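Lecture notes, part 5. Sequence design as translation. It can be helpful to think of inverse folding as translation between two languages: the language of shapes and the language of residues. The source text, in structure tokens, appears below.
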């Protein structure tokens, strides 16, 4: 049975639908298994040392997998990746294992899936987490970043996907010009 939202919850959700957010597919692999989830609640915390935060709903079955694996990759999606965002949001019913069989994935040295067409990829490890209501806030220490040059980004605004940026979306066939940076 679905719980009815209060007026305050509905108003809050309506306000947050006007907060544009980058769309990300956060992936992991390790002792807990391979998993990924679409997340818009990702934020830079500091560049010294490079740290980001990622919020994951505790009711998601991926939540415990991220906690157990500790290592993850935030794939910041390009506008080309809208369909993929739907798959990892669970909107299509495609099983998790099948999503990782597609040819769009590279893997780092620890076999964490990294999306070839992403606008950027941020690889790191969870160094702490905090529970706030229904979500966990994972603080992630960044090990390295891979930045794609010249592509549009995918954002979520007013409950729809939008493309922003000066470039154009890259296709998997075109490949990506990656610049890899390791934090000092």
């Amino acid at each position: 049975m679905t719980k009815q939202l209060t007026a305050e919850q509905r108003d809050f959700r309506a306000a947050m639908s006007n907060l544009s957010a980058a769309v990300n597919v956060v992936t992991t692999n390790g002792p807990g298994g391979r998993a990924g989830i679409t997340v818009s609640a990702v934020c830079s915390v500091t560049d010294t040392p490079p740290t980001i935060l990622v919020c994951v709903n505790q009711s998601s079955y991926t939540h415990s997998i991220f906690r157990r694996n500790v290592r993850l990759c935030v794939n910041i999606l390009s506008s080309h990746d809208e369909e993929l965002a739907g798959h990892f949001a669970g909107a299509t019913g495609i099983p998790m294992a099948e999503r990782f069989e597609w040819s769009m994935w590279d893997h780092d040295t620890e076999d964490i899936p990294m999306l070839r067409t992403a606008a950027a990829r941020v690889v790191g490890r969870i160094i702490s987490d905090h529970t706030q209501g229904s979500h966990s806030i994972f603080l992630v220490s960044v090990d390295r970043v891979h930045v794609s040059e010249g592509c549009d980004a995918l954002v979520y605004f007013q409950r729809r996907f939008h493309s922003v940026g000066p470039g154009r979306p890259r296709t998997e066939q075109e490949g990506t010009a990656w610049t890899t940076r390791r934090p000092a």
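The translated text above is only one of many valid answers, since several sequences can fold into similar shapes. The longest strand covers residues 135-148.
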